[in-house]
Amino acid sequence: MTNQSPEGLHSRRYVILAAIMLATIMGPIDASIVNVTLPTIADHFGVELSVAQWVPMTYLLVTSSLLLFYGRLGDILGYKRLYLTGLAGSITASALCALSYFLPTIHWLIAFRAIQGLTAGMVMAVPFAIITASFPPTERGKALGISAISISAGLAIGPSLGGFITYSLGWPFVFLINILIGIAGFFWARHILPELKGQPGKIDTGGAVTSFVSLLSLLLFVNYVQRSGLGLATGTMLSVAILATISFLWIERRVDPPMLNMSLFRNLTFSLANISALLNFMSQYIIVFLTPFYLQRLLYYAPNKVGLTMTASPLAVMVVAPFSGFLSDRIGTRLLACFGAAMCALALFLMSQLPPSATSLDIIWRLAIFGLGTGIFQSPNNSAVMGSAPRPQLGVASGILSTVRNVGMVFGIATGGAVLYALVSPAILQQSSLVGEEAAEFLSGLRYAYLAGAILSGIAAVTSIITIRHAK
C-alpha cells in the first residue's frame, strides 16, 4: 500500500497529521463562512431566499454525493494523488467564486460553488485512510480525535471571519481566504504526505451517478415546491428522485465491489446512530442557515456582528466535544448522546421564543446551549457508529458517517427554507430589512422553522437511546 516502511511513517506521524489538519480546515470554513454572508450576497444579486440558499446547499450537495465515490477512487489511484488534486482544484474554485461578484447573476456563484464542492470532496474523503496508514493501531483513536479539532476550529472561525471580512472588504473576499490556506496546505502536503500506492479495482460509476441524481432531484423538489406547489415539474423531480434511489439500491446490491456496503445497515445500532447524526446536522443547519437572516433583517446587525454572534455555537462545540468523548469512554455513550440531543431540542425551542427586539445576549446564550448539546452528542454518537462496524469495514463506515453529516447539512438548509417559504410571503423574504407587520410575519415563520428543528433533535434523542442501548 505504501513504498515507505511503517516505522518510517510512524516517526513522522504527527507532522503528517498537522499537514492534513491544515488542509481539512478548509472544508468546515467553506461550509460555515458563507452562511453569515448569505443575506449580503442575496441583496447584491437581488434574489429571494429560496435562490440564495443554493449557494451553501450546492457545495454540500456535490460534496455529499461524491464522498463515497472519492473514497473508492482513492483506493485505486492512491490517497495522496487524490488529496493533492482536490486541494489544487479547491484553490482554483475559490478564486472563481470571488470573481462571480463581477458577473450578472447569482447562478454563476452557484455553479462555481458546485466546482468547489467537487474538489473539496477529494480532500475530505481520504484523510482517515492517510492517518490510519501513518499511525500505529494503539494511537489511531487519539490521532483521529486530534484531527477532529480542525473541523471544530473551522466551524468556529468561519462565522466570525466571514462577518469581519464581509464588513471590512466585501463578500467576495471570504472566498479568497481559502486560497492562502490551500496554497500553504498543498505544498506542505506534497512534501510531507506519504506516497500511498493505489490498488487495481473497479469504480462503481452506476452507484455514484444514481446517488447524485437522487439527492439532486430531491433537493430540487424541496426547493421548487416552496414556490410552485405540487405540479407536473415538481412531481417529475420527486419521481426522478424515487427512481434514482431505487436504482442506486439495486445497483449496490449487485455490483462488486459496491460503493456502499449495504450489509452494514443490517446492524440496528449502525443504522440508528447514522439517523441520529442526520437529524442532528439537519437541526444544526436550520439554525446556521436562518439565524443570520434574523440578525441582519430584523435586528439590523452588520455582517461582522452577525459573524461574532454565530460563533457562540461552534465555540461551545469545540470546548465540550473532547471532554464528551473522554467521558463516554468511562461512563458509556447512551446517556450522553441522548442528553446532548435533548439539549439541542431545548435550545431550538428557546430560539423559537426569541422576541422581535432580542439582545445579543438573548441570542448568544441560546446558541451556546445548542453548541453544548451538539458537543455532548456528537462524540458518543460517532463512537456508536464506529463501534458497531466490523473492523475491516471501518473505512467504509467513516465514509458513510461523513456522507450522512453532509447530507444532514443539505437537508437542514432545505427544510428550514421550506418551512419559512411556506409561511412567509415571497415578497417579504426578498426584502433586506423588515419592520412592522412584515417583521412579525417573518419572525412567525422563523419560529416554526426552529420548532421543526426542535422536533428533529427530539427524535434524535429517542434514536440515540435505541442506538446506544444496542452498542457494543
The CATH topology annotation of the largest domain reads as Growth Hormone, Chain: A
Number of helices: 20
- Tell me what the CATH architecture of the largest domain is: Up-down Bundle
- Computed Rg: 21 Å
SSE class: mainly alpha
How would a crystallographer describe the biggest sheet? Answer: none
- Helix and strand succession? HHHHHHHHHHHHHHHHHHHH
Shape: globular
Total individual domains: 3
CATH class type of the largest domain:
Mainly Alpha
Terminus-to-terminus distance: 30 Å
Which percent band covers the strand fraction? under 5%
How many DSSP-defined strands?
0
The average pLDDT value, as a whole number, equals: 82
- Catalogue the unreliable spans: 468-472
Kindly report the name of the CATH homologous superfamily of the largest domain.
MFS general substrate transporter like domains
Helix content: over 70%
Question: Can you give a write-up of this model?
Answer:
- This protein has 472 residues and is mainly α.
- The chain folds into three domains: 1-203, Growth Hormone, Chain: A; 205-256; 263-472, Up-down Bundle (Growth Hormone, Chain: A), CATH 1.20.1250.20.
- It is 80% helix and 0% strand.
- It is built from 20 helices and no strands.
- It has helices spanning 6-11, 13-24, 26-45, 49-52, 54-77, 79-99, 106-125, 127-134, 140-168, 177-192, 205-228, 232-254, 268-297, 303-310, 312-331, 334-351, 360-387, 394-423, 426-429, 436-469.
- Helix 3 runs parallel beside helix 13 (268-297) and helix 9 (140-168) runs antiparallel to helix 14 (303-310).
- The protein is globular.
- Mean pLDDT is 82; it is low at 468-472.
